């Protein structure tokens, strides 16, 4: 299932990138969605940056068939691999979101580019559930949560950039 979202931020690409790679921002993003626990690691690799965020979420709001596959906690691991910036701050990257305990993952291309008076982050990828017969049903159930997560990150980011840290 295709996932395509954009998030607009009222800051330069360099400011947005600094925020997205700040461990405190990543921790706040996890807290805002009600994570039971979380870990964040940011590292440099060559000219790029890797951000790995792992969080545990309760599953009480998931459909029964999903809870039976996952259990009482859903572990989500996000891995962002950002390339070095171009001269105008434009960046590309890759995102992998894995749902522990479930055969579901998102693999997406990222873009960070100037847009108007700010920056637009784009996420374009494929959500896959590798379960015979019910994979499509699982993808349709998981897609809104993935999209909500992207939008929530945008809201937390706009607050962060406004000084609400």
The portion of residues forming beta strands comes to: 35-45%
The strands making up the biggest β-sheet line up spatially as 1-7-6-5-4-3-2
**What count of helical segments does DSSP give?**
4
Named CATH topology: Alpha-D-Glucose-1,6-Bisphosphate, Chain A, domain 4
Unreliable segments of 5+ consecutive residues: none
Number of strands: 7
CATH top-level class: Alpha Beta
Structural class, by secondary structure, is alpha+beta
Q: Main traits of this protein?
A:
165 residues, alpha+beta, Alpha-D-Glucose-1,6-Bisphosphate, Chain A, domain 4, seven-stranded antiparallel sheet, globular
Please describe what this structure looks like.
The chain has four helices and seven strands. It has a seven-stranded antiparallel beta sheet with strand order 1-7-6-5-4-3-2, with helices on one face. It has a single domain (2-161), classed as Alpha-D-Glucose-1,6-Bisphosphate, Chain A, domain 4 (2-Layer Sandwich), CATH 3.30.530.20. 32% of the residues lie in helices and 44% in strands.
Outline:
This protein is α+β, with helices and mostly antiparallel strands. It has helices at residues 13-20, 23-32, 64-70, 135-161; strands at residues 2-9, 37-45, 48-58, 73-82, 91-100, 104-115, 118-129.
């Amino acid at each position: 299932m295709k996932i395509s979202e954009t998030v607009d931020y009222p800051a330069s690409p360099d400011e947005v990138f600094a925020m997205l790679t700040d461990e405190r921002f990543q921790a706040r993003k996890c807290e805002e969605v009600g994570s039971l626990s979380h870990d964040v690691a940011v590292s440099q690799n060559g000219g790029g940056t890797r951000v790995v965020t792992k969080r545990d979420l309760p599953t009480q709001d998931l459909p029964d068939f999903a809870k039976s596959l996952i259990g009482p906690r859903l572990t989500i691991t996000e891995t962002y691999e950002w390339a070095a910036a171009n001269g105008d701050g434009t960046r590309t990257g890759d995102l992998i979101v894995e749902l522990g305990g479930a055969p579901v993952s998102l693999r997406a291309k990222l873009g960070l580019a100037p847009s108007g008076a700010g920056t637009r982050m784009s996420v374009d990828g494929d959500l896959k559930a590798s379960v015979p017969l019910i994979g499509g049903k699982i993808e349709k159930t998981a897609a809104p949560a993935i999209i909500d997560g992207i939008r929530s990150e945008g809201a937390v980011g706009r607050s962060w950039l406004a000084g609400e840290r």
